[in-house]
Amino acid sequence: MKEISRDAYRAIEDIVGPEHVTDDPALLDSYAFQWLAELVRPNLSHYMPRPWAVVMPKSTEEVAAVTKVCNKYGVKVKPISTGWYHWAAPLKDDEPTVQFDMRRMNRILEIDEKNMVAVVETGVICAQLQAEVMKRGLNINIIGAGCSTSIVASASAYFGGGPSSYFLGSNSDNLLGQEWVTPAGDVIRTGSLSSGCGWFCGEGPGPSPRAITRGSLGTRGGLGVFTKCAVKLGPWEGPPVLEPKGKPPAYRLPIPESFRVYTVGTPSFEALANIYYEIYDNAIGYIFHRQFNLAGADLAAALWLTYLDPKGTMNDVETRSKDPEVGKISDEARVSFQIILQGRSTADIELQDRILDEIIRRTGCFKVERFCEQDFAEFTNMYLQRMGHKHCNFIWVGGYMGSWMQPGTPDFVKGYVKTAIDGFERDQKSGLLVECGGDAMMGCGSTLGGGGFFALEQFVSYDPNDDDSVRACIKHMEDAIEDCKKNGIPLGKEYLYLQIGWTDERIWNDLAKMPQQFVLNFQRKIKEALDPNGLGDRNYPWIPEGWGKEKPIVTAEAGKPGKSAAAR
Amino acid sequence: MGSKKEGLIQIVGAENVLDDPGTLEAWSKDQSLAAPLSPWFVVRPKDAVQVQALVVWANETGTPLVPVSSGGPHFLGDTVPSAPEAVIVDLSGMNAILRIDPRNRMAVIEPGVTYAQFDAALAGKGLRIARPLAPRANKSVVASLLERTPTVIPRLNYNLPEPLRTCGVVWGTGEVAFTGEAGYGPKSLEDQWKRGGAQVDPKGPGATDLMRLVTGAQGSMGIVIWASVRLDVAPTVHEYTFVPGQTLEELTGFWQRLTRTRLGDEVAVLNAAQLAQLVGKDAAEVEALRQELPPWVVVVGLAGAALFPEERLAVQRKDLDAIVQACGLKRVPALPGAGQADVASVFEGCSGEPHWKIRYRGASQQVFFLSTLEKVSFLVATVQAAAEAAGIPSAEVGVYVQPQHQGVVQHVELTLPYDPANRKQASRMKAVIAGASQDAIQGGAYFSRPYGDWADMVYARDADARHLLRLAKGIVDPKNVLNPGKLCF
């Protein structure tokens, strides 16, 4: 790795104070230790590349000043707020990188109740903001990755969908004004904020500058640091403070009169699509999600009933799964989803209830009786209103990889489910992945406000500390890619995960086959302008000019956009 | 000029290249205060291939193109060339409804599809589209959405460009690329449909929201050749109710609670002058109505769609009454001179002729911007004061407040009517609008759609937006052939 002058470290110390910067290898490795790393790193290592230093800024000005130092000394920059996935870390071993740990910027700057706007710094997590806005009868969209995630990260820099996006909007829908430090160290504001009119609008003036960074997956830390943003809030008719009850870990949230909480079973994925469209057309529902099947359709009922049993342990799951009564529940819940209704009044919730019953009747679906009983419904309510059970993602053996999740219409999703299930069942036969049934598919009812756009993510559980299991997971990912190609299905999340371990050239070769290259060239030019020294990484993807058209030249400085021989 | 004409004829055919003085004169100006400038040609492409050829030709010849999709009258100056030698690209003939997908409630339409045309196509399918207030019958649906014209049902407005989803675009470079979900797939809608795609997701492709580059752009980034739009289930029962007030402040808390709880379909705030201009059939009727109507009114549309429509209506009435009562207001089933059918035509139909903006005094100018709730009254008063100072009585100034983005944003629009034959008044309008707009900007109004002279006012204060937009423009239209002189380009 290239040597970086100690002057750079000293300059950063001068900006943030010595207590807020470190190059202690033990601390640096705590940042390199990232979920999914073993799937892409040499020797199945749990560690992504170690940062050159970690900096904990307190303000936008500090982020900008440190970034300018990084430009001077040729150090890359990569922010992490709350992290989720291996790509939050530096991506290459040979590129000294300052990792910005944003957790000190954790202030809720404003909650404008009347205009339904909250302004937050990057370190503010969903649980923190939700607790505050609920006191005011408002709520936020918490993304699928849970309540411990940064709102700025999901609104400004990543996907932004979750169980409540159906009603509360995705965090792309909800993004208002934002503040951003480019890789050049310039502070940029967007929307009404840049016109000096406050945070309330994310569009314009004229075309929307957010257009160059938000997209469907955001910049994922690859094009500077988003330091603040404002988000739209939505109505909350529940209590001002959530008061869970029950014994840990199965906390339960009482269901207020203005809410209903159901698990609805369907006889097939065809029926699931049909009931989806009926719910969508009838515009009912507050939270719409398929949650509990993340544990696998064969084991989900046994797991969750054990989870709710105060005396249950993980050792009981297998026994319980063989109980015929539990088997019956498994069958009922096999193709199911959760729906939470919120009414603005008693009359409203009663009507929504009636509409749902009629939809269920017309589509030949049913309520999963055991999952609709009070204890389970309260557990569902807690799980989905707060999204605080993310430890359950790792519940089987400590690791999982969420594959598939190609978003589309319900009919489109229905079309790939069988391939996903068959492929997972096939690969479970290795005995190296958790055998929970081929359908471990979960996902939010809509990744767009108002519904109509759905996805299912296959939860492939593997043991990250067992090399054979890790290899089996990698093989499953590669198999899933092949399954998609064979069946004409767009590639899913496993492809994104694996790319993190690829060389630039391999990625560009794949990108060059994309049917529409325009955006990749656009992003290259944006990067050239806003990141002249190549401090960001390929999480903001681009393709060298002319790449794939003729024999390319590998650029001298990896990580900087380059031109092919033809272009030069 | 001759060789230019030949080049255009080669692309669209002689019958679709117009340069007669009458046509050029008509396209040289609109109802706005933009300085007239005659184009050299008006061309009428019939498909995307011709549009792309026109953009390539414009790059080769350095000719400005001004894309226009709607029929006249135009009001915003965006269709008037700002650079000499321009060619108007009249897209009104590209008016195919390419697909209506009832199950996914999506449609794909060409830019020339008008509200009148689209309404008729959707009516038989039990569908509707979120729409602006009384658009012209010949108003392009795509152009309206691209310009982020406010729509009248706040609860459906999950983001400001909604219900616009994805677009096919001929960018200023001459390249064709799709936006959003459509940007990932093959460059053929038919192929995408075969694979189950419905062009639903506006995000992307990649880390870029290309759709948001063409919204608010006045045709300066690319020419949209098709757009996908989200549809909604049309109500089977629909009624309007009215909550009048003496002042705007008196009603602010009420409409805030309505939008916050997403109660009702249409929610809009109008003053007497505005409602009179919308429903009055002629100047005399507008004048009479203006005197008769309450000073302010919140119009609320209650609708029932899909299952149990009557029951939905009953619940909404009950919930609405609770809010009305809590706010110390009263709701009434009708307004003098503005019956259910009149109001329905404003919110669900198209403007009659002549267009409502010119029906009262023969001409009008608009000042519109976005605001938060607490500033609305102040900003309205600010513009009214400027109008009053210019001799336009406040009582004649139409005020329309449209909650957007589910109540987070308030679109505030003031219509200043005047007699174009009154030379003194007409000559003062430019200064009046400029002054009123400056005052509003000073007061915190956000001119998110900066047409005409507003562009300089807005971008002079907004270096960040200017910088990023010029950067983007330099990439997608490096020779600045698309509507040069608009915005900050």
Structure, described:
The complex is a heterodimer of chains A (568) and B (489). Chain A is an alpha+beta fold. Chain A has 5 domains: 6-104, Uridine Diphospho-n-acetylenolpyruvylglucosamine Reductase, domain 2; 108-235, Uridine Diphospho-n-acetylenolpyruvylglucosamine Reductase, domain 3; 246-389, no CATH class; 396-492, GMP Synthetase, Chain A, domain 3; 502-568, Vanillyl-alcohol Oxidase, Chain A, domain 4, CATH 1.10.45. Chain A contains 18 helices and 18 strands. In chain A, the strands form 4 sheets. In chain A, strands 15-12-14-13-17-18-16 form a 7-stranded antiparallel β-sheet. In chain A, strands 5-6-10-8-9 form a 5-stranded antiparallel β-sheet. Chain A has a 4-stranded mixed β-sheet with strand order 1-2-4-3, with helices on both faces. A 6-stranded antiparallel β-sheet of chain B has the order 12-14-13-16-17-15, with helices on both faces. With 489 residues, chain B is an alpha+beta fold. The two termini of chain B are 25 Å apart. In chain B, a hairpin with a 4-residue loop joins β16 (398-404) and β17. Chain B has 17 helices and 17 strands. At the A-B interface, β9, β11, α7, α11 and α14 of A face α7, α11, α16 and α17 of B.
Percent strand of chain B equals 15-25%
> Percent range for helical residues of chain B?
25-40%
Oligomer: heterodimer
Largest sheet of chain B: 6 strands, antiparallel
Calculate the mean pLDDT score of chain A and round it: 95
Question: Into how many domains do the coordinates of chain B divide?
Answer: 3
Number of extended strands of chain A: 18
Q: How do the strands of the widest beta sheet of chain A line up side by side?
A: 15-12-14-13-17-18-16
Task: Describe the structure in brief.
The complex is a heterodimer of chains A (568) and B (489). By secondary structure, chain A is of the alpha+beta class. Chain A has 18 helices and 18 strands.
